[in-house]
Amino acid sequence: MGDVTLAAASGGLRRALPFWLALGLFPVAILAAWQGGWWIALIPLYGWGLFTLLDALTGRDESNLDPATGEDALRWYRLVTLLWPPLQFALIFGMIWWVGVADHLGWIEKIALFFGVGVASGTVGINYAHELMHQKSKVERWLADLLLASVLYSHFRSEHLLVHHRHVGTPADAVTARYNEGFHRFLPRVLWQCPQSAFASEKEMLRRRGLPWYHRSNPFWRYWALQAGFLALAFAIGGWTGLALFLYQAFVAIWQLELVNYIEHYGLTREYLGEGRYEHVKPRHSWNASHRASNWLLINLQRHSDHHYKPDRRFPLLQTYDEVEAPQLPYGYPVMTMAAMVPPLWRRVMNPRVRKWRADFYPAIRDWKPYYKGGNPKPRGAA
């Protein structure tokens, strides 16, 4: 029996190891900080370029693990998400200390280095926080809060769980990018609307319990305290320069997150049924991507159709869908995020796919104008 258990564990490790490739960002960042100069470019090249190349070489992975797989069989997958938070903490604050003592780094190099730190904390860190916040374990949820606080985006937990998952594809969800809306218009809109909708949702939950918004159980007190703590730590270690670089990496991380949010649901809307009612969320309401290597980097985030269909599934168990069930992205997220930064190119690639999606899934809808800019009524119960 012991040999069988050992064999099963080693097999689970082999299958999980590709998802550990994201940890390579840490030695790459250390090498870049030590050498300076053009070596700093290795961080985004590793995070974006390497996995784009691997996507081209390894193709798509359309296999699915059994969704009934038990927790014990997933321990090697879970471990990487538990290791990341302390490593990210060491990376951010270690780099703040390092740039204060490294005489060989000029200002341009310091800014470039913290751009790379933001790529790590945004591309991977927020994504891991997203995985952890969906779990029942208090430890995992706390790790998610720490990761989000380290990029000053703590409200994302409330907004994602209470607003986005409930109201995706409707006018109540700010992060469902609208058809023909460029990313540069999308970003300021969500930066303004999402904190408000997150706070309003928590306030409404407290009201239903007969409690005021300022009650100690409001998670925003925890969000604000953690963020203030990280800001103070950055200042204590690096002074005003350290604080500025911390803020800069946070902005880069948030930009990365919102690029992904923009891609995941662009132009996809749930059918309005009248009287404030919308159809249930289905796999068709998220863009799916089965590109193998970028799913390693993003722990299957690109299987986003299934994540919205079954939000409580851990990342190894997320299922991929074919084009009959869900719309498909032509490339993985690293390529699609670069395309999103160029709105004419984005529209050329994606608008025909949105129109095809409408024809395939909603042939009975003739007038799409109310769906363009959130013209339909908000869902019943939306804050």
Automatic annotation (TrEMBL):
It is found in: Cell inner membrane. It comes from the Bacteria. GO terms for biological process: lipid metabolic process. Keywords: Cell inner membrane, Cell membrane, Iron, Membrane, Metal-binding, Monooxygenase, Oxidoreductase, Transmembrane, Transmembrane helix. The chain crosses the membrane at residues 12-32, 79-99, 111-129, 223-248. It is a multi-pass membrane protein. One of its GO terms (cellular component) is plasma membrane. It holds the Pfam family FA_desaturase. GO terms for molecular function: metal ion binding; monooxygenase activity. Residues 112-337 form the Fatty acid desaturase domain. PANTHER family: ALKANE 1-MONOOXYGENASE 1. Belongs to the fatty acid desaturase type 1 family. AlkB subfamily. This is Alkane 1-monooxygenase. The lineage of its organism: Bacteria, Pseudomonadati, Pseudomonadota, Alphaproteobacteria, Rhodobacterales.
